[in-house]
Design a protein that fits this description.
The chain is built from ten helices and nine strands. By secondary structure, it is of the alpha+beta class. It has one domain. The strands form three sheets. Strands 2, 3, 4, 5 and 9 form a five-stranded antiparallel sheet that branches. The two termini are 18 Å apart.
Length: 295
């Protein structure tokens, strides 16, 4: 597997406003997600715990699902959710606030939802290669290639974004996929207290989740035991409280970008120098790590 990622960010950005036909959708299975975040990368329990421990819980967001035919389900806030033994199942991924980016060969920066760790200037991941870099991102699009499924790289190519997928042989050392029999408690979690989610589910559905809402799910993920529905309540509470109490450059940047953003797909009314200064003000000066540059 060999990729050319420079100037792309197709898997890190919601580029549906640029080319709805080519960008595809996030309906990768029989259970539609409750939210509309594009290409949410599911994290493992240990990855969620690492973000929480490092004070970066603001980067995390939960995803709940509508049930597929034959699924166990639970109703909360008038919404039927896929469940296991009456507990709503969820994954945790990285948030995508609006950012001024110019991905996949666009001529000018536009306001598009982009991964919180994507540097809008270099279109590189700020945590690429370090211990926080998610396994899902590091192995993409290996599982797509193994299953013969379309990749974001191919969608970018079809949209005129140049050659991106240079070698389509999947790696030999792919980890287990994020969804599967082994995923329960490891990447797919079950919230242990459905009655505590009144109001929370409606906010998640409407894109209005609060830090407390997100902290609930981060805590439940960290407290989960791989291979089971059981949750260590003490570990869950500790992680939830830590997620609630910490803030970082991530939270500051998300708030700044959200306040400044124009509607999805709108051009950014700044020249290159002004945009660079803005990114430094919002992210770099707030403590965001540097990107390594392209070889």
């Amino acid at each position: 597997m060999e990729l050319r990622c420079e100037g792309c960010a197709g898997c890190c950005v919601d580029w549906r406003p640029l080319d709805p036909a080519a960008a595809g959708s996030d309906r990768t299975g029989p259970r539609p997600p409750l939210d509309d975040v594009y290409d949410l990368a599911p994290l493992t329990r240990d990855e969620v715990a690492r973000f929480v421990d490092d004070g970066l819980a603001a980067a995390l967001t939960p995803r709940l699902f509508e049930p597929a035919e034959g699924d166990d389900s639970v109703g909360i806030d008038g919404v039927d959710l896929a469940a296991a033994n009456g507990r709503p199942v969820f994954v945790v991924g990285l948030r995508k606030p609006p950012k001024p980016v110019a991905p996949v060969g666009t001529d000018e920066p536009r306001w598009l939802d982009a991964c919180v760790f994507l540097d809008p200037t270099t279109l590189q991941c700020r945590i690429h290669g370090d211990e926080r870099y998610p396994r899902t991102c590091a192995t993409y699009p290996g599982h797509n290639l193994e299953l013969g499924a379309e990749t974001e790289c191919e969608r970018v190519e079809a949209a005129g974004g140049g050659d991106r997928l240079l070698d389509d042989d999947p790696p030999n050392d792919l980890p287990a996929p994020a969804f599967g029999p082994q995923a329960l408690g490891a990447t797919v979690f079950a919230y242990p207290d459905p009655d505590a989610l009144d109001g929370v589910v409606a906010r998640l559905r409407d894109g209005e989740a609060t830090p407390d809402d997100r902290a609930r799910f981060a805590g439940a993920a960290v407290g989960s035991r791989p291979g089971s529905l059981s949750v260590d309540r003490d570990r869950m509470a500790e992680a939830r409280d830590s997620a609630r109490e910490t803030d970082s450059w991530v939270g500051t940047a998300i708030r700044e970008w959200t306040e400044r953003a124009a509607p999805d797909g709108d051009p950014v009314a700044l020249d290159a120098d002004a945009l660079g200064r803005l990114v430094r003000d919002v992210e770099d000066d707030a403590g965001a790590p540097d990107t390594p540059g392209w070889d």
